[in-house]
Amino acid sequence: MNTRNRIYVIITLSIAILFLIIAIVQSQIDSFSAITKMTEEEVKNFLSGYLAGFPKPWE
Amino acid sequence: MTKNKEKNITLSLRPITNHKIRIVRIITQLVIFSLLNGLIFGLARVSLILPIEYPTGGPFSTVWSGFEALQYGLTIFTFPYLVIAIFGLFGAVAGKTTCGWACPMGLFQDLFSYIPIKKKKVSKPTEKSLRSFAVFIIIFALVFSLVIGISYNKNGSAAKDAYGIWGNIPYSVLDPVATIFATLFYYLKWGIQAETLGAEMGDWKFWFIARILFLAIILILITLYPRAYCRWFCPTGYILGFFNNFSLFGLKINKNRCPTGCNKCEKACPVQVPILDYDKNITHPNCTNCGECIDACPEGALKIGFRF
Ligand code: SF4
Ligand code: SF4
Ligand code: SF4
């Protein structure tokens, strides 16, 4: 690996770690945790894109 | 044991001993696939984000797919620090290794590549131009998500709901990975009921037909061109492929051990990486560190390792 790539990898890792810290401080994980508490029906409605144009026998 | 018998046993074992890495890799892929479908074994959904292609809302999915999380984050108008950090960490450390060893869509394509039909190759310029499909998908998904996010920020969740099927994860409406592992899975789970089939067919709408067509095209492509979805369409793979240029771990070639240039490695590579064009580190965006080339090299000139 040449020096330029070493600098790239160090910069990328620093930005990633910085962003990870910001995300933890902002509790961004909470935005994604909604799905962990959903029932199967709620997941289907939340992600209705998967079933677009699809006959929904459970409705 | 006679010499002849011994020779026969060695010969019959050769396919196994010649594919040591492949065997370890397939076992790893299957174990990870089971964990990603952990709802079957009573595991719970978790808010973990991984840079793989697997629909977050699949019937048994346990984790968030990175690219879906990226779109969802934008639709609720948050700067996606977390998702960028995940892509950055996985990418800078291991490049596209998750594609070779963890991604369910990668495993699915690997299985398709075993269909005994003569595989086709594309020229280098064609390979490069076909990759623009992935760029198009990334731009479409991110711009659309941001537009939804801006209206959500202005007018609240009613504005987001107005986008209907596109509202949470725009690309999921067409995503063939979601079609395989979520749409069809839900449908199979519910079951096709013969007596009402006619009525249901009448209900099938434009987007359903569109996504089935897109899936059909992808299935044909991945049968003829191994990992065609990874190479030309996958947004996650495109983003991770960029990190192959400087990732800490990756494939290396020792040219001193490769005097003949026998080309067995390039022939074994499922994603057409021009391995011999590189002097030391193989940084091609298609390389998933799958190790097929290492298995194929008779001289032991290739290895995956630390490249810093
Ligand atoms: S390129 Fe995409 S589909 Fe292919 S293995 Fe990687 S994440 Fe999965
Ligand atoms: S270059 Fe080797 S490790 Fe990389 S994708 Fe091809 S066969 Fe796999
Ligand atoms: S298979 Fe090994 S020896 Fe043959 S060309 Fe590739 S690296 Fe060189």
Automatic annotation (TrEMBL), chain A:
Keywords, ordered alphabetically: Membrane, Transmembrane, Transmembrane helix
The keyword Transmembrane helix is assigned to this record: yes
Residues annotated as transmembrane: 7-25
Designated name of the protein: Uncharacterized protein
UniProt organism field: Candidatus Heimdallarchaeum endolithica
From TrEMBL, chain B:
Gene3D superfamilies xref list: 3.30.70.20
Ranges for domain 4Fe-4S ferredoxin-type: 249-277, 278-307
Record key words, sorted: 4Fe-4S, Electron transport, Iron, Iron-sulfur, Membrane, Metal-binding, Transmembrane, Transmembrane helix, Transport
InterPro entries membership: 4Fe4S_Fe-S-bd, 4Fe4S_Fe_S_CS, Electron_Trans/Redox
UniProt GO cellular component terms: plasma membrane
Molecular function via GO: 4 iron, 4 sulfur cluster binding; metal ion binding; oxidoreductase activity
A Pfam match: Fer4_9
Residue intervals passing through the bilayer: 30-52, 72-95, 129-149, 169-188, 208-226, 232-251
PANTHER family named in the record: FERREDOXIN-TYPE PROTEIN NAPH
Record-given protein name: 4Fe-4S binding protein
Organism of provenance: Candidatus Heimdallarchaeum aukensis
Lineage of origin: Archaea, Promethearchaeati, Candidatus Heimdallarchaeota, Candidatus Heimdallarchaeia (ex Rinke et al. 2021) (nom. nud.), Candidatus Heimdallarchaeales
